[in-house]
Amino acid sequence: MRLHSLLSFVAFVFLSSQAHAAAKLAMTQGQVWTQAPGAAEKSAKTGDELAAGTQIRTGKSSSTEVRFEDGSLLKVRPESSLKLSGNKRQKNKSSVLLFFGRVWSKVTKSVGKETTFEVNTPNAVCGVRGTEFETAVADDGSVRVRVTEGSVGVGADDPDTEVAAGQEIAGDEEGVDETYDAEEQAKWEMWEKQKKERLRKGGRGIVDKVKANIMTRKQALETLRKQQQDIETKRKAAESRARSGDKAAMDEIRNYNQQLGAIADQIADLGDLAESQFGIVDHFADLATDPRFKMVDRKYLEAEAESLRRVKKTLDKLVSEGTDISIEAMDKMLDDMGKGEGGLRDDDSAADDLFGPGKKKKGGSGKDPFDF
Questions:
Q1: What does DSSP assign to residue 183?
Q2: Which of 97, 189, 210, 307 is deepest in the core (most CB within 10 A)?
């Protein structure tokens, strides 16, 4: 099989693997809505399967439970909005974006030291390998994490502060505070009321800081994409040498693939954090248009939200391009080449090799998944 044919096949296999359900609704009570990628929002029911990228919303006095493939459970409290990350990753990790509201998580314990489950909020990320904890995001984007079993890593960008059972940690757009002993009663309603009033009176300052944080993440994403493109240039040079019979170039290609994959996962993580922030900004705008909320600087928040929606389009493109790869499939392709099952010859038409002259793979572009 020729090089471009192999790459197209890699893309096809990878995209197909992303299509299965990421989770399902184990229980629904009251008004619960879901919105799959590219679809309209609809009322949800127990047993519904949830694809990666699905948004979930609960109404007043309503709740739902989300069960993941590994057995992890997420209980979504009333008046909450969240999303199952749709970003592709090389490592096995479930990521939830909590825009506002509250969720309780029981995460199945994993083998090894790597984080396998994350809850991303507008101002902090919670990374776990197996534990029970509750995460809340107030109307102003403030976050509280309360751990009842095991431990959770929490931080503004990386989950680097350990929160043990019986402890809490809180944060807002300025950063994450130190851990403290949790009180017997969480007093969520009192906390949420205080944060709602904080947004009503100080929305301008809050949205300005959130915007600054988003722009910082945009710069970080642009830097990572540039690193990917530089590595891709080197990879293509090694690929050219491999076509000429340089066997050592195969190891170089494999090394470059691993570097590209590691950066792709960094981009996926940053993308989730940024999208969580965009979600809370949209919530600010919704509250600003609600006359019952009586927000000070209402027009300013609406204008900033509209401006940031344009920024989001740029970030979405960066994340999509930077994560559209599969290292596992690329390494398998190289192994097959090393066994003599594939050749490093170039060809103009991968689609012809796989599907016959003039035919194209349904639902795919046929492009090299590493062609940045």
A1: P
A2: 97
